[in-house]
Task: structure prediction
Amino acid sequence: MSTPPPKQLGDQEIARAICSQFEFGGQRFRRGQYVAILKGQVLAVGESFEEVQRALAAHAPDPRHGLICLVDTPAPDVIRRW
Result:
């Protein structure tokens, strides 16, 4: 019986992994860097949004494809204390 191939992670799952572990696929990331992710792959890493946006636009002109994340520790959107 053969083993099924590993499931490829989606772009948002990769962004979450990068922000929680500061590494993905053997590559390390620093807080404050921007990362462009397209089709389950890290496409570009840079110090500015514009830098990685240009790389992403060159590979995927349709803005509905890919994403850019800012490497930072995840924080909840809302915290309530009663």
User: Anything to note?
Assistant: The chain has a mean pLDDT of 88.
